[in-house]
Every structure is written in structure tokens, then in C-alpha cells.
Amino acid sequence: MELCSTAVSCMAATFLLLHLGLISSMAQQNEVQTGLVGGEVTLKCTGIPLDSKLSQDAVVSWMYYDTLLWRMEKNKAWKKSTFLTGRTDIKMENKQLKVWDLKLSDAGIYTCKYGSHEVRISLHIFKLTVSLDGHFLQNEVPELILMQNSSGPPPNLNITLFNSNNNRVTPQLQSKTRQKYIVNLKKLEAMDSGTWVCQVHSDSPLINQNISFVVTVLGFQNPDLERKYATVDSTVILSWHLNSQKIKWKEGFTGQLNWKQQEGANAHELLDFEVTAQGDLHETKKSSNFLFEIPERKAEIIIEVKIPKVYFNHSGQYQCQLEYQGRHVQSKIELVVMKVSANPDGPLSRGANMTLTCQVSGPLPPNAYLRWERVNGTNMDVKNSRQHEVKLEVNISAAGLWSCHLIEDNDRKISLHYHVEEAPVWISYVIIGASVAGSLLVFALGCLCIISGISWQRRMQRRRRMAQARQYLLENKTSG
To answer: Going along 10-115, which residue ranges are E strands?
Structure first.
């Protein structure tokens, strides 16, 4: 019986020791908090009574590793001059330690002591750097550098990015060490301006940190390459919408508008412009040979040129380029011009044929083609061009209104009409009479030529006979 009692006492003592050991182990386990460089963090002294409930002889202190940061004893508090001087404060009610303007080197173990009670906090610091200070031009690729510092070996991180529309973006990892990750994003578009989020995750220690950063993209609301169609003698306006007002761009930039008729040709500067930091647009016309106008300014920042009367040789690439700190981005509008012609030109006589030609100034996309058709005609009066064909001819014998259409994705982009007039009947008779008269004249001239030839031949024969007779008489006189 005594042996059994002793065994129970030993088991109880063992259980108590294990329980106390577990409590001690849990007490020594570090609580992980994260902070960002330049930001602030509040370290909590969990489990300490509120200031109003502390005894007068209570001693509370904050330590960074073995360095004393702050101490309160007998209701008197004082700070020690350390690397955190000027960047810390204590909330007296609950003894929380607030640190601001964080640096990577602030990472480490912070300990709050209250009697035998200790709270250990492992402060993990992140620093996110965005290239070009977050100010980009359209189509540029941002580089992100994420650095970390902690009290122990830096953990392996998983990085996820979300753009300003909260859509997940997959970054391209350029290099990686335990302390430093370098990733590249995709080419930016003008609509990517806004607040992005870098989500950092670690399994051990468990870390889930969202780091917000601002991306500002200066560029065009137009696509990089736009195609615009126009007909000869029409009026066309080419516009480039800048997004500087929308994103509240605070710095000035410049730009210019160039035109070249085809790829590889010399570019001609049409105008240059400047947008001030206050958002004022100033334009200067540079070309005197190219007939164009600058429309009145609008509330938005828009680069516009107006061609009041389009000629076939106005076609080509119009490139608007803006420049900022030696970098530049451009947007192009390709102007494709259509013209029609007839051969022979003029009224169409009965029974005669005419060739109508429809031509565009540049190559068409695969989903576009030309079509000739007679208004109110039949299917026989319709002809389509082949793929990539820029010139379409149709032979006609019927007068009326003929139309050439440029069709892209089953949508008529532009149309140009040619009215073929039917020649009056008397003109046909005149033409027939003229043809007959011409034929008779040719016949008469032919006969005249034949008669003249025969007469000339006879005269020549007569001259030869007379010459022979004189020669004969001369020879007889000589022999006699």
C-alpha cells in the first residue's frame, strides 16, 4: 500500500514538472510581428495589467536583446539612449512600445519584462523598392526588390502580386537570396496606374504580409498601333489622348508628332508639344509644306491634327511620341486612303466597256478586303478583292452608281462612289458616223496613195525609155 502511494506521488510530481516545463516553453516562444521600412509598428506587452492596476513598486522594462530601451520603476519612467532614440514611444496605459520610421536593422528580439513575466517578440522587417520611384512610361517593365531581415535565418518567401484592378499578376523572378528577391513585372499599360499589392507569405515562421505600393503610368489611351481609313477629298482628324490628367501626373514632359509615308522613309516633324507640371498644353506647328490644322484645345490633354482635304499621298504613319527624363513612348495611327478612277473617263456609250479601279494606299489586314458593286444591281455586279490585294478593277458595260467598299470584319469602314453616266443616243450616232467617216477617209487615202504610186511608176518607166532612145541615137551617129 505504501509502495502504491509512493508511485502515485511520483507520477503526480512528474506530471506537474512536465506541465510547468510546457508552460515555461510556451512562455519562451517568440511572438512574430512584421513591419515595413519607413513604417511603424506597435509591440504589445501581452498579459501585463493596465497601468491603473499596477502596484507602486512594479518594475516594467523593454529590452532589445540585452540592450535596455525603457524602464519604469516606482511609477517613474526613463529611456536609455539607443539606436532607436527619437523613434520610439511608450503607451503608458498598457506599456506598448511604438517604433516608427523603421529600418531593416531594427529587426530582432524585443522583450517586455514585468516581474517574472516576459513577452518576447521577434520583429521581422521587410523593405520593398520599386524601380524609377514608381513613375513609368507605357510599355516599361518595373523591377521590384524585396529585402527582409529577422532575428533568425530568413525564411523562404512566396511572393504574389495584384495589380490596381485586383487581378493577380505573375512576376518573373530575376534573382533570389535569403535576404533579397528581385522580380520583374509585365510591360505596363496606361490603365495599370494605381495601388498594387505585394503579398508575402512564409510557412515557418507563419507570415502573411501585404505591402502596398503605387504605380503611375504615363502614356496614351490609344492603342500602340491604330488604323484609320479615309477617302480622297474627305476631312479627317487624328487624335492621341494622353492620360496625364487622369493619373494626376505632377511633372512636365514634352513630345512631338511625326509623319512618314511608308516604313523606312524619312520622317517629317509636323508639330512638337510641351505639357507643364500644371497640366497646360503648348503646341508648336513645325511643317509648312503639309496642309493640316490644329483644332481648338479641349479640357482634356489631346494631341490632334485635322487634315481638311485628304489627298492620296497623305497616307502613311502618324507617330505621336512623348518624352520624359530621356525615356520615350509612342503611339501610331496608320492612315489608309482610298481613291477610285475610270478608264476611259466620261460617259459610257451603248455597247462599250469601262474599267473602274478602286485602290487603297497601303496593305490591308487579313480580315479586310475591297468590294465593287453596282447600287440596285445584281449579284453579277459584285466583285471582291483577294486577300492582301490593294487594287481592285472591274470591267463594266452597265451605267449607274457604282460603289467601292472597304470591309473589315464584315463591317464597312469606308465607301467611295463613282457615277457612270450613259452617253446620249445622238452621241452614239455621232460616234458611229465618225467611225464610218473615218473608215471612208482611210479608204480614200489608200486609193489616192495607190493611184499616186501607179502614176509615179509610169513616169519613171517613160523616163527610162526616153533615156534608152537617146542612147541608141547617139550610138548610131557615132558609128556612121
So the answer is: 31-36, 41-43, 59-64, 67-73, 76-79, 88-91, 96-99, 108-114
75 in the Ramachandran plot: left (φ > 0), alpha (ψ -120 to 50) or beta?
left
Q: What is the DSSP string of 371-428?
A: EEEETT--GGGEEEPPTT--EEEEEE-S-EEEEEEEEETTEEEEEEEEEEPBPPHHHH
Its pTM stands at 0.75
User: What pLDDT does 15 receive?
Assistant: 39
Tell me which residue has cell 533615156.
467
One-character DSSP codes across 256-294 = EEEEESSTTSPPEEEEEEEE-TT--EEEEE--SSS--B-
Contacts (Cβ under 8 Å, ≥6 apart) of 254 = 272, 273, 274, 275, 322, 323, 324
Instruction: Provide, rounded to the nearest whole percent, the portion of the chain with pLDDT above 90.
Output: 60
The SS3 call for residue 37 is coil
* Average pLDDT of the segment spanning 192-199: 96
**Cα-atom radius of gyration of the chain, to the nearest Å?**
47
User: Which residue, 421, 422, 418, is CA-closest to 405?
Assistant: 418
Alpha carbon distance 228, 223 (integer Å)? 12
For 291, the grid coordinates are 496642309
Instruction: Report the C-alpha gap between 138 and 218 in whole angstroms.
Output: 6
**Range scoring the smallest mean pLDDT among 22-36, 141-155, 315-329, 358-372:** 22-36
Place of cell 484645345: 297
Helix (H, G, I), strand (E, B) or coil at 84: coil
CA 357 – CA 342 distance, rounded (Å):
6
Q: Are 218 and 249 in contact (CB under 8 A)?
A: yes
Contact 426, 417 (CB under 8 A): no
* Lowest mean per-residue pLDDT among 136-145, 194-203, 434-443: 434-443
For the ranges 163-177, 221-235, 341-355, 383-397, the lowest mean pLDDT is seen at 341-355
How far, in Å, are 18, 31, 166, 274, 458 from residue 63 at the CA level?
Answer: 29, 15, 40, 57, 142
Instruction: Place 475 in a pLDDT band, splitting at 50, 70 and 90.
Output: low
